[in-house]
Structure formats: C-alpha cells, structure tokens
C-alpha cells in the first residue's frame, strides 16, 4: 500500500526532493549473489543526468550513486539495496514567486490542496528529479534479467515523427535525443533548440521494446503484465498516455487485421505479427514486449500564464530558470528503467507461483 | 501482492471462470453504515450483461448478484462484502478444438506457457465474463462516493467517431452502444451488425468522465491517481491503450497550448482548459477526471487464422459460437466500475493520511 | 493492506458471518497443477466442525466445502480457488439481549465503537465460525507442501498439563481433545464436562510442530518466519499468547543453557537442542518449527457478568445457548491450518527471491 | 509484500547492515504538517544507543539521525521521511572465525542456507543494530499519536522479577535497566555485571503499556491489533514470546476469572479488570494496551559451543568482543517504537475506513 513503493515481489521505495540534501531508492527482494558495483549503475544515471547537452536542463548534477547496503564483497546479499544520490547543484535562487502562486500544469496547486503545505523548491517531491532514483533501481533490475534486452527511444518530438523504415538502434546513443533515425535527430536539433530559445516546450513519444522475454510472465487478472506496465509508465512525470502493441490503433482494426497468426518454429511458436505487443491475457507470449508512452510538453514555460496565488487571487506566472525544453528526452532512460523493474518483478512473481 | 486483488485501502478480490458454477468479488475495507441491497447493484449488472441486444454476445446470463456477507439490516458493517453471480448459460458445447489449438490473440497460448494447463471452456479465467465481478464491486464503490458522477460512453467504433459537438449524455442510455451522439448510434447499428454477420469484429474507444472529484485525491509517486487509473483500465480485457486528458495529443502540443490556466472562482479555482484530465502530479485538481480507453477488436472471429496446436504443429482455427462483435461496447460499464473503484480507494487513502 | 487477507505471495481472503448464508475463502497464488478435490479438504473441516462431541458447541454444521473456482479436471489452474461453506444451523433464537448489551470479553463493544453498528447474531464476523474458512484454505496449503508434516495438539487445559514423557502423537486422533497423552485425555473428560455443566469455560494451550521444513524459509526483517507465525496465531479467536521454541522460558535461561549446539550430520547439520524452535534470525534452520499458543477461556459463560448496554447504562448479561466450554480444543485444527498457510507462503516467497 | 517494510497505511522500510556505512528507515504515509526535527528523534535514539553503561555492549555509536527528506521548514510534507544513521564504530577486527563457522543461535547458518552467502561482519543485516532504524521511525510515529502515552520497561531479567507492588514508572529513567522497581534495579546491577564478566548472557521480559488509546483501532480479521503487535514484537531480534494482557496466564483461568466486567462511566465504559490487555476481537477497547515480550539470552557467549564450519566439519566457536550481556535491556526502546508504529498505523487505517 506504500505509495512511494513500487512492485510486487521485487519492490523499491524512493525518497527525496529536488532541493533536499539527497534522494534515493531502497530496492528490496533482490536475489542474492548478483555481482553489483556502483560502476555498473552509473552509466544509466549518466544517460538520464541533466546538463548533458543544450537540449536538456542546465542543472548540473553528477548523479553519483552510492550503494549503502545490501552488497558484500561485490555481490548482493538478498537484503535491501539502499542507493543514494546526493543533490549537488541546488542553485540558491529566489523561490518566492513559486511559493506564492501556482504554476498551471504543475503539481503546485494539487499538492497544496492535498497536504496543506508543499516544498516549493524546484517542485519538491513532484520534481522529475525523483526519477533518478528509479533509474538507479532499474539498473539493478536489469542485472536480475540476464538475456533480456531493453531498448527505449524517442519516436516523435512535437509533431515530427521518425521514419520507421530508417530506424537503426545503433543510432540511439549517437545523438542527444535517443533517436534511432539519424535524419530525424538532425531535424530535432533545430526543433528543440528553437523551443528552448523561445522559452517554450515540446511533447514527445517514447517507445520501449523488451526482447527475449520468455512466455509466461504476467499475473492475471490484476497483476497483468500490461496493466503493471501501464501503471508504471503513467506514473512517470509528464506522461499522459500509454499504449501496448498496436494501442489506440488497434481500435481501428478489424479482428482479421489485428490477429497475430502463429506458426510452428524450432524454438517454440513464431508469430507473424505483434499487434498484441507481446502480451495476451496479461501474460507475455515470447514476442517482444512493446510499449509507447506520451510525454506532455513541460509546463515550465517563459510565457506568462494566468493563474491564482495561494491567497486565491488572480495573478500570472512565468517559469524562468533551468528547465528541459522537452522532458520526453530525459524520460527515455526512465521508461527503460520502469520496463526493467516491472519485468524483473514479474520474473520473480512467476517463479514464486510456478516454480 | 495478491494478483486477483485490486486496490490499496478499499480492495476487492475476484474469482471465477467463464464456465464454472459461479464467479464473485469480495470487497474489503468498505466503510460501515452504507445502505446496500442487491437491488442497488443490479442495474449496473444489467448494463454489462450479455444478450441485451443483437450487437452483443447471445449468451444469456441474468447476472443476478447475491450479497453473501458484510451487510446487516440493509447496511454495510465494515466487514467483507462477498458478492456472487451464478453462471447459468454455460452452453454445453464441444470445446475439443479450443482444447487442442491456440486461438491467436487470446490468452490460450500464454496461459499454457505460464501454468502448464488451462481451463479452456469459454476462456476460463481469461474470459471477459470475469468483469461481471468488477461491475458488482464497482456498484458498491459508487455508494462510497456520494456526489461523484461517473459517466462512460463509446466515442468511436472502428474508424467511426462521434461528433463531439453533438454529444448529449442523456442519449447514452437510449441506444445499445452507450453512445452520446444519436446520429453515430444510428450509423453504428449497420456497422456493428455488418461485422457480426461477417463473423468479424471491431475495436472501439471508450471515454469516462468523473465529475465532482475534489482536489487532493491521489498519492505520489507510485500511487498516482492517473497511474492507478492506467493500470486499472489496461487490466480490462481487450484494452490496449489508456490516455489521461489530452493523452497522446498532448505530445503534439507546445507548453503554451497545453497549459490549463487558472482563474479565481467562487468555490476555488476555475480552470480554463482541462488538458491535464483533472490530474496534476498524480493528484486530482478538482476538474473532471477524464480517461480514454482503447479496446481492440476481439480475436474471436469466424475467419480461419493460422495457429499451432498444443502439440506444436501448424493448424488453423476459427472461432464459432457466441461472441461480441465489438467488446468495447460491453466494456463501457466496466470502465465506469474501475473508475469508481479507483476513486473510492483514493478517497479513503487520502482520508487515512490527511484526515 | 486488505485486512481480511492473509499472506504475502500465497494469499487468502475470508468472508462471512456466523449467521449469514455462507462463509468462504478465496485462496490466491496457488501453484498450478496440484490435485485438489473437495474430498481432500473435508477431513480437515470435520476435525474443526462443531457438534462432534459433548465437549464442543452443539451447533451442528456439516461444514461441507464447495470449490467454486480455480480447479479444472481435478487440478489447480493457478487462478483463485474459491471455497464456500454454507451455514446450515443458524438457530433462530432471540438475540435481543445481545443486541442491547455488550458481553464483556467479546468483541461486541469494540465493534460498536469502531463501526457504529454490528451484526450481533452469533457474534457476526467476530465469531470463531470464521475459522472454518481458514481451515479450508489451510487444507489446500498442505498440498503445496509435500513432505512437510504438521501436527498440533492440546498440551494443557486449564491448569492440567500433559505428561511430556507420555506423549504419543498417534493418540491425538483417539480422543475428543487432540491430546497426545491418553491419561490426560481421560482426566480432561471430567474437567471439560464439569465446566460445560457449570456453564463455565476453560483456557488451553495448543502446541504445533512442523517437521521436514527445509532450512532457508523466512524473510528478514519484517517477514520473519517467527513474526509471521506470531501474527497468524495471535489472530486466531481467543488467542492471547504465542511462543516460538523455548518462548518465555528462554528469558530465564543463560546463553549457555539456551544454545542449540550443532554437529555435522550426513544430511546437513544436526542440532543438539531446539530452544530456537527451528527458526534463527527469522529463517528456518531445518529443525522442527515449534509454536505454542495460549487460548483464553471463552467469555461465553452462564454466570451473570456486570456490563453496560448500548444505551450506556449498567446492566448484567449471561450467555446462554450453544458454546464451546474450551475453545482451545477446536482451535487446534485452526493452528495447524495457519501453520500450513504461513509455511506455504514462505516456501513460495523463498522461491521468488532465491530461485 | 516487501519484507523489509512494516505497516499497512503508515509504512516504513529499513535498510543497512551492522558494519556497512550507514543504516536507515524510510517512513512513508506520514501525515503532513507535523512538526519534526532531528532533535525530536534523538532522545529515543540515545535510549537505545550502545555504550551507555557497562551493562550494554561497548560499541560506541552516536546514532545521530539525519532527516534526508519529507520535512520542509520544520514540518512533514506527506512525502517519505528518509532517516539515516551513519555507522561510526565498526571496529576493524578479524572476522575470519565467524566467516568460517556458524555461531549456534545466531542467524549465520540460516542466512547461508537461504542466500548462499552472508555479510558476516557483526551479523550483517541480522544484527540488532538494525533496530536503530526502527527506533528512529518509531519516534516519528509517536508524533502522529498525540495523547497516547507509551511506556516500556524490563520486568524480569533471568529469573529475577520486579515486585509489582513496588512499580513506579518514574524510576524507569533512573537506572540503566529501564526498571520501574528501584530495588530490582539494584539487584540487577550485580546480576548483569556477573553475567558480563563471566562472558555469559541473560534473558529478559519487557512489558509495554499504551495509555489513552481510543476504542475502535484494529482491523479484523487479519489486521487485528493484537495480531499486528504480536508480529511486530516477535520480529524484534532475540524475541521468542509475546503475550497480550493475561497472555499464557489466561489459559489457566476460568471464564469467570478472565472476565473484564464493564460499568458505566462518565467518559464511556469503565472496565473492572484488563485481562484482555485492551483488545477484544482484535479491536482496542479504550483500556490500556498491554504487551509482554520475552527476550532470549544472546547467543554471543564466551564459552566454546559445539558447531560446524561452512565446510560442514565439526568445530567449536566462542564469541569474543563487544556484546550485550542482556539484549532485552536495549530491546526496551525498540518495543516502545514498535508499539508506536503499530498504533499510528492502525489509527490511520481506522480513519481510512471509518472516517
């Protein structure tokens, strides 16, 4: 029930605010005996870290992960793995404006309505900075899933989609957008830079593919693999939509068009299509698991927007300072992390019930 | 962790198979003192029940709910409310074909891969018949939410969308499609009947609006109201996509376009748009909560589809018998039920923490 | 969080009241492929059933279990196993006295204080009748634990203890007290009959031994095997104390006396004592797991006791009707059931984490 | 399901090992707006801290708590409260003996059997040092329970009990044993010092009373207040027995003797006895909640004990170094902390369901 905890058998709890001294994750239920060092986590942190290019926020955080427990002589012991990331660049700025008025589209008003008070510095707990802890936990989850290959990429920024015939996963690490289409990446430089300079922001779509997931993971009926993935992805900051496989497109297909015919193969069934996104009845089928995630444009824009103050009076607010012009970009490693965490959880849950 | 249990504080557990003697839900955590009779649940059961029109499956089930516990002298006692629905029309048919071969798009293969065996009669536990139990539980959840008004409707069948300027909620109960646009409902008669006669099937989109939800419900960061809704909706049979508010459309907007400006109002803030779908930072804002859900066309089609048998050999299968040509239609009351269950759960969770 | 649900990976939810139409358990997470019929559950129900001798309540309930879901062609499918027991002998009596005044020692006052209302017929949900559902679930849990042998017995009634040098497990089924000491069983006939005739009641101690539990089950630090057993046992109606191994006696020992020395054995370590009761650090050691449980005398006595009414005024109440003179006796199969449920749960939890 | 997490609505997760860099607790679900500073937690840490007298282990740890999240401008925000305690005095000693052989009565063998490896330095995660994190969390829980007064004390060391007629709670803080009987405290100095000098150890009984708990907390049937307390207490290191109210003594009483008669009082019912320990049917009655907890003598003794090595061969081991001669003493603040955590959890759970 713990709302800052995610997972069923492999569970992690995150804590921390944007401008507190640190944030972290406690990963519980991790199998023993897995080789784990801070260096094995760090590359995933670096992928998500701010300040890596001019297309992301200029806050500079090393996001160095410390392992505080659960590892002995380089291996997990089966006890909780506590991961901590110290905040370094909490720029001392004047938050009086944000303290007094609500930024539309942010969590400001909702937090005040719920809790009666809020940590307004950098968004507090509602900041996407919290996702650093998820990425750290996700890096460990990957180690629990040897053989499973998880790849996320940006397929669309604003209205500009990639050319799927030009997709090349080897391109993803070659540009600052996690873009598998080199030509699109080039176009996006101008697009995102334009938004940044204008103090505006852009939405994006991130896709994630998990290969080599065996058939049989997922737990009907309220722990369905797709349901857990949907909850995991919708819980990422700024996400407004989630699709599995053909998604909303499936609503426009006929049953014949949507079918994924099966043929006998050497290593189990071969599927002739994957509209299902690798999941049927909430259980993996052995096909690649495919998720699409819609990120809204961040609400942090320079234009003044009508709002109200804590005093209930009309006012306007514009968000200055260091922000991502397109939060979907840095959301990509977070999508990968959540995919890894959900899959590792279900691998273990399956093992509990089915041996 | 119980995978046939849903919810955080208000929890329900469902059980039962398509062709077993009965199915049911145990709703736990219900506040005491709420007036509850079987007659108060039945209308919601009837809305979902099969055999109501020629546009849904012809299986005839009265879906009469029995309250077996948790109610005394017409009021809930705070103990588990056990709801049972007996199966009546489990037509004795020959399941040998389904027993031997996997229907592509169904859970057949995945269940066998997971469990090593399956109840193949009518899909067993993977049948949408299980959603009757959710609707029963949802009917009770509505009673926990006095004042909240929940309305779901079909906004699209196949490629045919409603005209939003013609939307009229009073129409929803006037046609067999839960359609708020009378003209669209007329068009859909031919559309769905055509699919039915052809032994084909159609996808659909269902939208759900919850009005009068106060600001402050939802639990960051892994019990966000939108994340829980996404998981709840994606867990409904045949669902492949979920959007909150502007959803995937938000990915194409600029920050300026996506903003929901606020103005001072007599009873709290007034919002000038609702791209957020009533949720910010995972917490309700007081605006209507809006969810869109994509249903795939059912895989039960008359056309023969390539598949494999349990023996691993190539074969073909076509699904005869009684099936919904468009499962999204009868999914509408299920979407409403899940909305009610998630909201009631979060109302109580909010009360636990914030008094 | 569901308070009528027990367990971590293998979970069961019970529902029902003493005088409702039925009660039941939904067992979720059960491994697939286990042979299960109603006849395999019934003997455990019969052991707990009322009306078996003059030493227990004269309410006559067949306690016939119906399996409503989760089993197909004689084997579990991995979906929820719904078990229902219909109430048959809800004698129509006058409950007006219990409705108006609180029976001291019963849950009457506490339920009213919590919920504002209560089902006073036979104690409603607080009746020990609910334990029938646990015994049904426990019977299934035993099937998940092939090889583990669970034996509970009454070791003390009132102040009369068994002679441990005369213990013989084969005697347990030979007398109406689950007593392993034939001489004590003979003495208890007069003791319990005397209490019954006097309208009084007696406390008891039940011990439970689980043999062949492998080393390694249990989950530090808040899912310790002993902690889960303590919670499980203390949750049985009328239980006021739980000990593991030497229990309170260990508080009087020196470290030297309390040590369980180990010696090398052919099949793993041999322990030269078992003060630990088979659990160290919350994890099983491979020794027999030993629990002792104290049952209070039931509060249902014929003597008039001072109490207050719902109106807050002083009055007196005496409990007539059909009651157990010593609830610990029929608690014995419940202790066994909870032991089986906790062990099966931990077997599966261990498998989830450690493979 | 997270086994290093405790609680239902108010949940805390602990992490850390005896000889790691730090340990901590993440307390989730804390109500917002509660005044909280590190200085408000520290006195409870100091009460449990080692090295306070010659009667406890000589390891010297300041046990200074840092609040890393969840507090803003001196008040809780409703987000997770992360509490960290750095380990300071991890004496660099030679652990080769413990690495190679199992200390009987410790978790050494069980951890190896479960996980295949273990952090043997100071017992790793199985060390009672973990309870520092519980005490920190418990200090926050107390603040959620204004008005409730929680007092634990040692009532027995070895075979030497306090004189209940001489009990005076004001004495508890006046001696190093948390003893409410000054004369007993004087006797215990010699008793405990003798055990310490002999390299032996002593068991103890700790009692805990919670006053001003309102009627109505507790959640039948698997979240009973007494069941949750039993699980909480049995999960404390070295605990082997738990009693509520009259406990095992109740097994020897008749129903008449065990009754707690009620009389009308100005502020609700007055009870004329408290054999129930303040809980009936799993729900608080408004009387003081009373728990008794048995601590075994620590297994860390100087005498050589027969054991086996990791290699399976016979050997002997004696535990040198810094250990508590009577772990029950420092267990007292831990018992108080767990009482506070269980009560605060149930206060919030009650509020969720019953408003």
Automatic annotation (TrEMBL), chains A, B, C, D:
Its cofactor is FMNH2. Reduced FMN (FMNH(2)). GO terms for cellular component: cytosol. Keywords: Amino-acid biosynthesis, Aromatic amino acid biosynthesis, FAD, Flavoprotein, FMN, Lyase, NADP. Pathway: Metabolic intermediate biosynthesis; chorismate biosynthesis; chorismate from D-erythrose 4-phosphate and phosphoenolpyruvate: step 7/7. The keyword Amino-acid biosynthesis applies. It is an enzyme of class 4 (lyase). GO terms for molecular function: chorismate synthase activity; FMN binding. One of its GO terms (biological process) is chorismate biosynthetic process. Homotetramer. This is Chorismate synthase. The lineage of its organism: Bacteria, Pseudomonadati, Pseudomonadota, Alphaproteobacteria, Sphingomonadales. The gene is aroC.
């Amino acid at each position: 029930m713990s709302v800052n905890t995610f997972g069923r058998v492999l569970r992690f709890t995150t804590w921390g605010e944007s401008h507190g001294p640190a944030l972290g994750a406690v990963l519980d239920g991790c199998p023993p005996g897995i080789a784990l060092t801070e260096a094995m986590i760090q590359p995933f942190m670096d992928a998500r870290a701010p300040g890596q290019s001019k297309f992301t926020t200029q806050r500079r955080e090393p996001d160095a992960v410390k392992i505080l427990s659960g590892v002995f002589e380089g291996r997990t012991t089966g006890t909780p793995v506590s991961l901590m990331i110290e905040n370094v660049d909490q720029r001392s700025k004047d938050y009086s404006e944000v303290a007094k008025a609500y930024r539309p589209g942010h969590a400001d008003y909702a937090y005040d309505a719920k809790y009666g008070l809020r940590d307004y510095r950098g968004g507090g707990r509602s900041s996407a900075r919290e996702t650093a802890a998820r990425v750290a936990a996700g890096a460990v989850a990957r180690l629990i899933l040897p053989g499973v290959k998880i790849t996320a990429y940006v397929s669309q920024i604003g209205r500009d989609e990639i050319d799927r015939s030009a997709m090349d996963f080897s391109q993803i690490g070659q540009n600052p957008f996690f873009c598998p289409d080199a030509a699109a990446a080039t176009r996006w430089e101008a697009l995102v830079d334009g938004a940044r300079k204008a103090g505006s922001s852009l939405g994006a779509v991130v896709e994630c593919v998990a290969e080599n997931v065996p058939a049989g993971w997922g737990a009907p009926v309220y722990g369905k693999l797709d349901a857990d993935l949907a909850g995991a992805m919708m819980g990422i900051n700024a996400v407004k939509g989630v699709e599995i496989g053909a998604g909303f497109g499936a609503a426009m297909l006929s049953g014949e068009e949507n079918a994924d015919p099966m043929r006998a193969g050497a290593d189990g069934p071969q599927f002739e299509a994957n509209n299902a996104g690798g999941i049927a009845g909430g259980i993996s089928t052995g096909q690649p698991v495919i998720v699409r995630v819609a990120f809204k444009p961040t609400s942090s824009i320079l234009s003044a927007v009508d709002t109200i103050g804590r005093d209930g009076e009309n006012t306007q607010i514009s968000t200055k300072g260091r922000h991502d012009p397109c939060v979907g970009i840095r959301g990509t490693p977070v999508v990968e992390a959540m995919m890894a965490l959900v899959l590792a959880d279900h691998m273990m849950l399956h093992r509990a019930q089915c041996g």
